[in-house]
Amino acid sequence: MLLRFKFSNFRSFRGEQELSLVAGPLNDHSEGVFEIPGFKERVLPVAAIYGANASGKTTVLRALGFMDRAVHDSHRLWEPEQPIPVEPFAGEGADSPTQFVVDFVHEDVRHQYGFGMNSASVLEEWLQVYPKGRRQTWFHRKIGKPISFSDKLTGENKVIEQLCRSNSLFLSAAAQNNHEMLLPIYNWFWNTLKFVIGPRSAETKLTVEMCSHAETRALITRLLCIADLGITDVNITVESVPEEFREKTKKFVEAIRSIFEIDSDRAFPDEATHAAVKLLHRIDGKLLPFDLERESAGTVAYLALLGPLVNALRNGSVICVDELDSSLHPLIAIEIMRLFENRAQNPKGGQLIFNTHDTNLLNTGILRRDQIWFTEKDAKGESHLYPLTDFKPRREENLESGYLQGRYGAIPFIHSGEFVTSLAEGDGKTK
Question: Could you tell me the domains of the chain?
């Protein structure tokens, strides 16, 4: 389970930011809070981030996503002697290191892993492990110095150090070389952190593929039915891909490889068939199949989420969703949160981190006060992440009203009638 995520100097964030999923000392409902054997602090299954447009909500998720990709790809995919694709704050201080740190529990043991880098090289990297609550620094890397290894970390450490480039992470290199003790840490990133950001076509495809298994299809069908979308079943069929479409796609891929000089030995996946989904609606006593193109945007958005959500609950993953409320009714968003806060439905401790503009969720009683976060951008263009608990709101306080009134910040300050006045002035100038 994820405990804390810290980062600094990334995109619109300059100073150090922290998103914590450690429960605070509140009297709010605690039935959804998780307790970990041997760990004193309780852990939250859900965190919600609010803020104005362009305030940095999505960037928080992208920061964790960049850290995840760096662990996966830096040794395997980042080219030698090429710049690290990090995105520091654009203003003053852009030359400072960009840093990422995660605190997490894996197999009932707390771990802290972090690194700092600029576009040229990894400047620092470390891993601390807390068996029985006692800290052990398994390795500490600092630019210009040999990596310091603990005698607790057995394996081919020095050999892998020689294989590790200045622009790749030691953890990434260790995993690619099957380091027995570090591979589980790498796998925590690989198996645990999941992201739903941007277009959801990949997520829709995942959900459709999952429906090919009868048990999973039955579960997804139930989740569709209880959302009152008029859907009674899901029908998966195998359809042929038109030859003309396959040929055009193949030529397009070959052209892209040629233009960008991509030397790949991977063959084009020339699949002749694909799984197609139809949602069955009961109309006038009959079951009629509808293609996804005929469904509402809300139905398609919900379907796309179901695959990743089911996987997160089954596997104990951390799923980060950008704009959870996109095309979804607030009541469906509430039920999604309830799934993660229900120990019977979420026995492995899956976690949901999402951003939203849906203020209705603030007064439902589903979110504890320590599960609500805000992002705000100051006059210098610098974003800040902070928790609702900084304002010490009372348990019975109307959080939605307080937020919309600007009591906690993180809203756009727009004068009443400003849009109408601006439009009228613009129309006047064009006449």
Answer: 1-198+322-417 (3.40.50), 200-317 (no CATH)
What are the backbone angles phi and psi of residue 83, rounded to the nearest 5°? -60, 145
H helices within 107-242, ranges in order? 157-163, 170-176, 183-192, 201-210, 214-226
Among 291, 321, 297, which Cα is nearest to 309's?
321
pTM: 0.88
- DSSP 8-state class, residue 22: B
d(C-alpha 141, C-alpha 182), whole Å: 15
User: Collapsing DSSP states into helix, strand and coil, what is residue 86?
Assistant: coil
**Structure-token match 């398994």, residue found:** 138
Q: Are 399 and 366 in contact (CB under 8 A)?
A: no
For the chain, which residues score pLDDT lower than 70?
93-94, 238-242, 244-246, 250, 253, 256-258, 260-275, 327, 414-420, 423-431
CB distance 36 to 108 below 8 Å: yes
The residue type of 383 is S
> Which residues, at least 6 apart from 321, have a Cβ–Cβ distance to it below 8 Å?
196, 197, 305, 308, 352, 353, 354, 355
Match 């003790």 to its residue by tokens: 181
Digit-coded pLDDT (tens) for 298-357: 888 888 999 999 999 999 999 999 999 886 788 888 989 999 999 899 999 999 999 999
Which parts of 78-194 fold into alpha helices (H)? 157-163, 170-176, 183-192
Query: Cα–Cα distance between 167 and 164 in angstroms, integer?
Result: 8
